[in-house]
């Protein structure tokens, strides 16, 4: 029995050493390559032709109403004032509108940004064929919502795209040293400072969002707890968020998604029952997932041909 | 080793195999879209592999080994097999605790399937250790002799 106990001790030590070895190997191999996001400062919102283009939708873009809801949309009066000013790239006269619904916590959104978006940008956005718009769809809970709000706060200072690239790099690149970072409020503010944004203004924007979020999510929870229908409670949440501020902008994105899904052809609408990120709308067609460039190319070319035929 | 413990470890190993097989499938054939589960974030993170070898694959092989050893023990009653199961479960549990720490503190997302696997390993560890302490050395045929 004594000898057997020695064996147990020996195996215990061996197991601990094996686990330690695994931890060391895991740590060594997780040093991910640098996140090579396209730097868009020079071609983004601060200068150049592909900057955010707020303003009335052009006639050449029948789907631009997606970004500029009118009172009759969805059969209900709407007053989401900020939706005229979504982060947008490309010419407002582009024949195709590509809307991305994404979040900063989704690795597939990062993969899309890394592998597919540069090709779309080079081939279609820079050539004026596609107008590109970003909207938030936070699916990973409160942290993802706060990161989305930070994106909107950066957008308020005209630096959405550079901040967008920065957050993805922080979350999925090696910028954190460990290669995978948490985006807590301090880190979000730090990222804004690193990009030269007005930090106090950014902080205030985030704090206002957090205060609204807490107040309204409490109202939503109370509504659900008191037996309210989910749809009714959601409406109460929307009403609580009001029509101004970052929270309203994020809710506008969720509303925009609903409208765009409702506008899809029936067969595509059936496929859009469970949405995740990234989700794309190429004019009036949906693509759910980080598909390779060829899939976007096929859809965009089809839309370009259709538009050419309409002329 | 008593039959009940062997059967429990076999059932847990099968459960662990199922979980790790699912995570392995997600790792290679993920549906390229995030639906809100933390598993996509964890499974696509740099921590999900060790030099190109997916952790879920390592987990699957560990469970297969534990299953084989538990079945073998059921037939032979060898305490040596229990000792190896204990060693595997201990190293797996320690590594799982480290991975769970990474999920919470570094990655910022918790994958329920990974946590399930960690719990399965921990229970196997407890069962194997208990069996070693109770049964001690020597063969304890699981099946009643005729």
Brief synopsis:
The complex is a heterodimer of chains A (311) and B (146). Chain A is α+β, with helices and mostly antiparallel strands. Chain A has 11 helices and 5 strands.
Question: Can you describe what's shown?
Answer:
The complex is a heterodimer of chains A (311) and B (146). Chain A is of the alpha+beta class. Chain A is built from eleven helices and five strands, in the order H-E-E-H-H-E-H-H-H-H-H-H-H-E-E-H. In chain A, strands 1-3-2-4-5 form a five-stranded mixed β-sheet. In chain A, a hairpin with a 2-residue loop joins strand 4 (279-282) and strand 5. In chain A, helix 4 crosses helix 7 (199-225) and helix 4 crosses helix 9. The termini of chain A are far apart. Mean pLDDT of chain A is 79; it is low at 41-84 and 175-179. Chain B has five helices and two strands. Chain B is elongated. A two-stranded antiparallel sheet of chain B has the order 1-2. Chain B is 74% helix and 3% strand. In chain B, helix 1 packs antiparallel against helix 5. Mean pLDDT of chain B is 85; it is low at 140-146. Chain B is an all-alpha fold. Chains A and B meet through helix 1 and helix 2 of A and helix 2, strand 1 and helix 4 of B.
């Amino acid at each position: 029995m004594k000898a057997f106990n020695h064996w147990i001790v020996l195996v215990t030590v061996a197991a601990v050493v094996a686990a330690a070895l695994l931890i060391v190997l895991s740590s060594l191999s997780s040093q991910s390559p640098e996140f090579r996001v396209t730097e868009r400062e020079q071609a983004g919102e601060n200068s150049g032709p592909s900057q955010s283009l707020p303003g009335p939708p052009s006639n050449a873009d029948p789907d631009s109403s997606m970004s500029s809801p009118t009172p009759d949309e969805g059969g209900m009066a709407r007053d989401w004032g900020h939706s005229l000013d979504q982060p947008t790239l490309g010419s407002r006269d582009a024949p195709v509108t590509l809307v991305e619904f994404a979040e900063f916590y989704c690795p597939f959104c990062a993969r899309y940004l890394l592998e597919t978006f540069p090709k779309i940008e080079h081939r279609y956005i820079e050539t004026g064929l596609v107008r590109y718009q970003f909207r938030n769809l936070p699916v990973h809970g409160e942290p993802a919502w706060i990161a989305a709000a930070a994106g909107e706060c950066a957008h308020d200072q005209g630096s959405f795209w550079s901040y967008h690239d920065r957050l993805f790099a922080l979350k999925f690149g090696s910028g954190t040293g460990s290669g995978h970072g948490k985006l807590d409020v301090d880190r979000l503010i730090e990222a804004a400072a690193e990009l030269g944004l007005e930090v106090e203004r950014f902080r205030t924007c985030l704090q206002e969002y957090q205060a609204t979020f807490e107040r309204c999510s409490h109202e939503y929870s109370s509504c659900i707890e008191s037996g309210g229908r989910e749809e009714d409670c959601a409406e109460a949440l929307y009403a609580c968020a009001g029509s101004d501020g970052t929270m309203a902008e994020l809710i506008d994105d969720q509303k925009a998604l609903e409208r765009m899904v409702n506008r899809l052809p029936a067969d595509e609408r059936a496929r859009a029952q469970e949405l995740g990120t990234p989700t794309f709308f190429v004019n009036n067609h949906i693509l759910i997932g980080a598909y390779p460039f060829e899939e976007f190319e096929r859809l965009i070319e089809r839309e370009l041909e259709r538009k050419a035929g309409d002329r | 080793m008593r039959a009940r413990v062997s059967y429990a470890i076999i059932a847990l190993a099968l459960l662990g195999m199922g979980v790790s097989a699912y995570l392995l499938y997600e790792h290679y054939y993920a549906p390229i879209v995030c639906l809100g589960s933390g598993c996509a974030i964890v499974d696509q993170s740099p921590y999900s592999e060790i030099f190109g070898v997916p952790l879920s694959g390592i987990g699957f092989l560990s469970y297969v080994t534990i299953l084989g050893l538990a079945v073998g023990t059921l037939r032979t009653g060898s305490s040596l097999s229990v000792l190896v199961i204990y060693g595997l479960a201990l190293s797996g549990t320690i590594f799982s605790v480290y991975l769970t720490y990474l999920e919470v503190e570094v990655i910022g997302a918790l994958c329920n399937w990974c946590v399930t696997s960690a719990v399965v390993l921990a229970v196997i560890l407890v069962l194997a250790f208990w069996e070693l302490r109770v049964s001690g050395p020597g063969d304890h045929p699981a099946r009643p002799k005729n």
